[in-house]
Amino acid sequence: MNPPANFDRLARVYEWLEASTFGPLLMHARCTFLGDLRPCRLALVLGDGDGRFTTRLLAANPAIQINAVDASPAMLRALERNAGPNAARVRTYAADARTWQPPHADYDLVVTNFFLDCLTTEEVAGLATRLRTCVTPDAQWIISEFSLPPGPFGGLIARPLVAALYLAFGLLTGLRVRWLPDHRHALAAAGFTLAREQRLLRGLLVSELWILVPPSNPTGQASKRLL
Ligand SMILES: C[S@@+](CC[C@H](N)C(=O)[O-])C[C@H]1O[C@@H](n2cnc3c(N)ncnc32)[C@H](O)[C@@H]1O
Question: What is the rounded CA–CA span in Å between residue 123 and residue 97?
């Protein structure tokens, strides 16, 4: 297993880098399903970075407790600063999420925003299989990611852009992964099913809400309640 990418030196400029390239769009993608997360009580946020989504989640849901995992201690310090007075409801873990063992078995929310793209498809599959055993039956998994839409926009714009992002993050953080994992296949194989999705920027960005496949519904079709 390769060492995790080192985002420490990006921690203080990460928000600025994002704002100067994608403006508010990544934040919009992260928060697509925020309004659906009010009933959640115990969240696991993996690769949480500087915690801007976590800060919004804490504000939107005053009852939620959050376990935040990131390999970068500097990112976790930024997260604690950003969480402000709500930081007491966040427990941070400086760890490699690929091998970290969650301390709870009843998470009702998992969040991976722009994190799965730091992993290979095999690593996402291993993670999803492990998480399957520590979530509640009604758990939701929120994912934001870059994606390659079909058609000329995908081939001519999205593909070179994603390749350039990988090149830049490879140079800046030592990230060894060079292409987007097939996270959909990995999550489905672990027993999760896609309930809702929203695409932005003509499909370059995708926000997804996954749930566990209901036992009464072995075909893997998402329930009508969520669709
Ligand atoms: C592209 S940033 C995304 C951060 C944040 N989720 C967001 O939406 O901006 C990826 C984050 O994942 C963390 N990371 C990368 N590989 C990791 C791993 N194997 N275990 C834990 N964290 C990791 C990095 O330190 C970084 O904070």
Answer: 10
